[in-house]
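Notes continue from the previous slide.

Worked example: a multi-chain complex. Inputs as given:
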Amino acid sequence: MRNRISFFALAAAIVALPIGLAGCPNGGGEGGEGGGGGAAKKSIHLPMRTDGPKSLDPVQGSTVYDNRACSMVYDTLLQYKYLVRPFTLEPNLVEAMPTVSADGLTYTFKLKKGVRFHDDGCFPDGKGREVVAGDVFYSWKRLADEDNKPKSWWLVEDTIVGFDEFKAAQNAAETFDYDAPVEGFKTIDDQTFSVTLKKPVVRFLWLMSMFQLSVVPHEAVEKYGNKFGRHPVGTGPFTMEEDAWVAGKSMVFQKNPTYRDDHYPSADEITDPKDRARGLHEPAGTKLPIVDEVRFTMFVEDQPMWLQFESREIGYTQVPAEYFPQAFVKLTKQLKPEYADKGVQFHSEMLLDFIFRGFNMEDELLGGWDPESRTYDPKKRKLRQAISMAISWEEFNTTFYNGLNVVYDGMIPPGLDGHPADGKAGASYRGPDIERAKKLMVEAGYPNGEGLPTIDYYVNRGGNSPEQAELFARQLKKIGVEINVKLVDFSTLIQTVDNKKAGFFSFAWSSDYPDGENNLALFYGPNEAPSANHFNYKNDEYDKLYEKILSMPSSPERTKIYEQMRDMVLEDAPYCGSMGRERFYIINPWLKNFRPSEQFYTWVKYLDVDDSTRP
Amino acid sequence: MWVYILRRILYNIPVYLGILLLVMLALRTKDPVWAFLGKRKSVADHDALEHKLGLDRAFAVQYVLFVGDVVTLSFDQESWGQPGKTANELLGDAIVPSLVITAPALLLSSLISICVGLISSFYRGRTPDRVLVILAVLGMSISFLVYIILGQYFGAFILNDKVGHRIFAVEGYPDSLTPFTWWTYCMLPVAISVIVTMGYDTRFYRAVMVEEGTRDYITTARAKGASKSKIMFVHMLKNAMIPIITRVMITLPFLIGGSILLEMYFGIPGMGRRLILAIRDNDFPVIQAFTAVFAGLYIITNILTDVLYALVDPRVRLS
Amino acid sequence: MVARFFRSRGARKFMANRLAVAAFLVIAGYLLVAGLVWFTGIITLEETLGRIGASYQPGLWGAQRSGKRIEDATFWFEVAQNAADRGDFETARGGVAFYERRLTGELDADEIKARVARGIALAKEVLVVEGFDESASVLPKVDEIDAIVVELFPHPEGWDAFMYGARHVLGTDRQGRSISFRAIYSIKVAVQVGVVTALFAVLFGSFVGAAAAFFGGWIDHAVIWLYSTFSSIPYLVLLSVLVYMFNDTSVDKTLIPLYVAFGLTFWVGPCRVIRGETLKIKELEYIQAATAIGFSRTYILIKHVIPNTAHLMFINASLLFIGAIKGEVILSFLGLGVKSGPSWGIMISQSKAEVVSGFFWQIGTATVLMFVLVLAFNILSDALQDAFDPKHV
């Protein structure tokens, strides 16, 4: 008996060990945080729904996550107005919007005075130097330097006088000379400079707000070399230490103490009454940035992100489609009472999305392009139209997106010039209309699909796309079209499309800037694969119109041409479409001033925190 | 003995070279460069990059060069997914978070399982033994993923909600490790991992103990009048150390590799998570370096296990 | 070989273990279901993919809380409205979309629209009531909404009612698919993966291992090198690399990548064990005697050595079966598993979003079904081990 007791005592002691370790389950707070004494530090914790940015070197960035991180530490010449919709630009690093010469070719900018780079060891005495015009040109020239592995040269390609020549010459030379002149770049004084374009391109102004063209100091690039992307130095509202970024996991930004004079927009800038109702006008005039510390956590899985939101740990979350019924009443698209009662707010925003199923117009079976006559086989057109008519986008919408998406005709997403009223364009082959689709199949020479070989359909394998592909196959079967779904990695999908090997594929385009021109460019002949015209669509008349609109500022006349171009494409049906997502955000009560946008990411500096409602 | 060790090492070299060969070949079944390039690119960009990264050289040359990197332990190619970081640095960053989870998990589950194994063998065939064995089998029959999904929901979210303050973080990893932050962020994943492995470990250790219990020396000790607990803890445990050590050794490479699922769900920036992210990013240099290191560690522990066996049982050396 | 196996002392010992026999019967039951699905198609793949009703319907008695009841009703209203709008009654009435639950044929388009409008109006009235989920005052309205749904989509009768019940008994997933049908169909998938993997790994591994040990020399060295190499590649890397290779090939959507992934890694275990056993058997007198009589080496290997390792093969097979079923879950999580149709792994990884909402039907169903099978195999392999290989550690 004695033996047994001692035996159990030992076992119990060992089992109890981990619990003994527990000791002090009280207290809270993030690890390593809360060190600084004195006044409460304003700290916010935000999610990133992925493994995060790859590099904080603006020229190496391309994803929205790179954009989010770069927007923290760098500034661009222009920025989006925080609360104004439709999207509008305002000066950021410059004093005023640039002046444009009469021929629309030369843009003159004047930098704000006294804007300083972050204090950093790369400057003498560690004090950030004032930004001058040369920094802007230096930063842009980095896009041309292939040693930087730039991902976004296409932004400025064939746009600025002498820039393409500069790129070719410097990359061919032994060393890349940043001091070599570019014909279109002119420094007038330390603050003033001008840029001359090859042709008047209206989208140039939008480029001025893209993070890839952020201003960086050459001292930092020279000192840190390929480490610059992990040790960013800019002029932005926040700074980041190198060890504050745990790759794929978290990033912590600190307020930039030398940030220039920048203020929360005035109350009358609010265009959406819902924003006013949420009190977004109240902080007008507050000096930016408002918070002292911003922590981002990357969530590769949705479950932890959602639980962290519900624990009030993170300030907001996007609502993944799977979680929508959890938080919202589907019928009214309003928050469920259990959320609303806790003070949770929500915001929804249409994304500038163009989701479609594209055809390769050079494909023998589906395209029927004849390079001799530069025309398309009309029978193939009927086939494409039939396929388009067989697809029910509404079913995709209800099945996979809780019916929140917008289904529309054409390639121009909602909210932009050229988007048809009610989403219905004059020429429409949007389904479902099985009867008409069957008729078109007969006209195409494949009654009930007879004689039509199985079509290879390429789709990215991620997310729920296997399920989506199943639904797609079922819809097409109704008119006798058989598809063979090829689930491939995204990189393989791009590669197959770029090599013109994919006849039929699923793709989506998010606008780079809020102008329909960006989407119309997808059908411009010279842009054919491997460029953005994945359809390899060629239409000489269309191309001429496209070249014309490039230099036209927004006007009813331009909108008319947009519509004309849209309908031309619709008639030829190089794709089946279209759909755009509506994104829902839910926001915890402690996060103040949040007006989400996925078009720009400079909004972190406007955010505030109310710690009284935080656990 | 030294000859034996040398022989084991020499023997394992071709195995390791084989692994490197297989992995490198497999990673090249597709063109990794296309994956790296962004939204818009051209064949010329592709070729330029391929050349720069040395992927246009003959495979044999690449193989020899990479083996050279492995021998000198210099994985200083820049990561594609995380430019500015080398594969070496990423390895260094990821090792600690993995160890902080797996080492305590191994320690706890071994300790607990050995105890439970002892108890079980002590009561062999009687009710406590039966109950423990059944529990172990039940535990083994549920998927790891289910443990994690439910563990995170009930163990962190619901528990915190009910208690009213945070006992375990839902996910995350502390900036600075202290016993307190460790408890908040790491205890739950450790606990889940202990629960998952305990079924297997308990069964193993029970079998070891039962086997030891039937040996002649136990009978002798008992005949000499030693107390039952003394027999268990002094004689049996001492002799069972060999399989125990072996078992722990075998687990070591997995320790460093971390647990992919746990790291993904609990946001722990360890090796498993890094590898998965690298695979998703097509981060070619990192995948190559990580696999080489994983396999190397595995081989080293294999050799160590062999040597340990040989130390204990000299007959092994002759075979 | 089989007959000899069943006459052995171990087999008798195994039969005496009642728990093991029960486990064996459970496994036989699963195999039977798998066989029925496979050969008779009592559940087709189509049925596991088709929508049967609203998303996230709870099982057994359906939704209890008003909010959820309204949400489910709204789904049927939408279906009816769409059908009436397009004048497309065929799909909704013909049971193409929702199987037994069909749109009534007794109402015309305008009548349907009127019912739907009434239902939606009622729903909106309820949804503005404070705390409508708990409030008893809204119940009459919610009941009326449900009554409208039944009027539009009458409950099926007879055999249809049974099928309808079977489909809905465990609720629906996000896409409104039957959880019960998906889980049962997954039995087939699991058994298929388990059987193919275990059979291949054990047969191949055992033969190679036995041959290596028996012939020795360079064959042995080559085999050891091969399995050392395979077992030293981190499991995850091997799998990802394999699936990466299969991706975009004609077998991509089949289970073949999964088989190969398991097959390549799983054969190592039996190979090691059987090789060790063969080394022992080789030294036994009867093998030496057989050699002395002049039988060919291959004959001895096949006729005398391998049959004597059968018990180890059985034990290994049941262990590998478990490994394959559990491995499938992990692979599905990593996006490398089954791609078309359901599997327990897919069900569990899909359910991670639902658990947060307190919806446990899918994860529960898949886990329980999987648990019982794995448990049975665990018990079986223990019993086999006890009976045939009692000294094994």
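Summary box: Residues 87-122 of chain B form the longest helix (36 residues). DSSP finds 14 helices and no strands in chain B.
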